[in-house]
Here is the input.
Amino acid sequence: MKHPFLASLALCLSAIPLPALAQSENTAEKTAKAARAREEAAEKFRAGFARLRFIEGTWKQAKGTATSAGVEPLFKITPYLGGKYLETHGNFGAANFQMIFSYYQPGDHYLLSIVDDQSGVLDVYKGEFDTSGALVFTNPQFFRISLVPTPGGNFTWVGAYSRDQGATFKVNATYVLEKAP
Here is the structure.
């Protein structure tokens, strides 16, 4: 025989039952399909998280704007835990706090968690972009935080609360923020 290798290969292949070959192909297809699904999920996460990144950076109260509650914020929002979250910490009056922002891909919405050293409460907010482009977070206690993009890559932080289970909200804090140097 001119090609002993091909003869050996043919003999080996003839010994493999056809269902086993089909199963091998099926396993390869499943593996490829799973890899595509993982890549699609990763791309969806990247796109969703990218929409949140407008708040990343160091922020201060904009010049010429009034402060709320006599507090002038200065804080830095940075990537956290491998860039899967954005995180900030600081103080508001006597309270020290930490906030973590995330994109929750399965529900296609955003989450904000806040802890502080005064209340002992883990406060969790669900957020979605409204038609104006603001990212609006609400929680079950009917508090609302709106992050409203403004020209020049800045944003306004608006805090509000409801005493009627979310039918109406009263603004209790507004911060016009600009990038700090």
About this structure: The helical segments are 4-15, 18-52. The longest strand covers residues 95-104.
